[in-house]
Q: What sequence folds into this?
């Protein structure tokens, strides 16, 4: 279990680094080839190419500058594990005040020949609508 | 090597998912008997709900909800090779009777299950709105 936790912690640090650099190709490579994102306010996003485009849209379109992922709990062993965590993201849309969103997520991790990858990724905000 | 009857497990998990769709006909004790002690509910725009008492209180509130219609369902169900963890993703659309008329919520969910003492238990669910 500890090994999976360490792997997830490292991947989450990389996730933040790739967001800061706007490196969507590397960001997408953290996911399995047939991974699914289940974003708020959007349909299911499936596959690395679509995931790369999705995060590219968020980084460029919403000026996502930073994301922090904090693991709360990991369950599972073998070739699959589930991570529950909390996120914080900073947006700096042009012409608007910087905004911070905080929420929760669940990621299903899968062990692949390329290592542990995000397979399903879903989140929701903890902030109330204005 | 554990012997896993995947087909039987899939049938049970599909049944369990439907059984856990709480409405005014649901029995709170029966629903709770399928929820693991360490389960977590992660509603959209709310804090995670953990612990048997908090989850029971949440289920009691759900039973009081006047559900006008519920649709959607599981699109993908996966069982980990360990045979004791399972996950599903899907879409939902629920229409509740609110104080000012029908209120529609539509979104994605991810559900987690764990086999405890030979029985599949509901470990948690996260959902968001689209």
A:
């Amino acid at each position: 279990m500890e090994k999976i936790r360490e792997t997830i912690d490292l991947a989450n640090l990389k996730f933040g680094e790739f967001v800061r650099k706007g490196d969507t190709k590397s960001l997408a490579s953290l996911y399995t080839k047939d991974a699914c994102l289940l974003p708020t306010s959007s349909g299911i996003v499936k596959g690395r190419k679509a995931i790369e485009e999705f995060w590219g849209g968020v980084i460029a379109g919403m000026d996502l500058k930073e994301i922090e992922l904090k693991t709360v709990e990991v369950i599972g062993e073998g070739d699959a594990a589930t991570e529950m965590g909390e996120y914080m993201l900073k947006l700096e849309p042009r012409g608007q005040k910087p905004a911070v969103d905080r929420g929760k997520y669940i990621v299903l991790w899968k062990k692949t020949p390329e290592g542990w990858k995000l397979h399903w990724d879903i989140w929701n905000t903890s902030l109330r609508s204005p | 090597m554990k012997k896993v009857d995947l087909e039987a497990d899939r049938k049970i998990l599909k049944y369990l998912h439907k059984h856990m769709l709480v409405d005014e006909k649901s029995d709170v004790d029966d629903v709770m008997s399928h929820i693991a002690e360490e389960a977590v509910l992660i509603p959209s725009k709310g804090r995670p709900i953990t612990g048997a008492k908090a989850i029971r209180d949440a289920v009691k509130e759900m039973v009081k909800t006047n559900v006008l219609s519920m649709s959607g369902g599981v699109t993908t169900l996966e069982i980990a090779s360990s045979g004791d963890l399972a996950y599903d993703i899907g879409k939902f659309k629920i229409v509740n009777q609110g104080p000012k008329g029908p209120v529609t919520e539509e979104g994605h969910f991810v559900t987690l299950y764990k086999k405890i003492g030979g029985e599949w238990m509901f470990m948690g669910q996260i959902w968001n709105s689209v």
Remarks:
- Helices of chain A lie at 2-21, 24-28, 48-61.
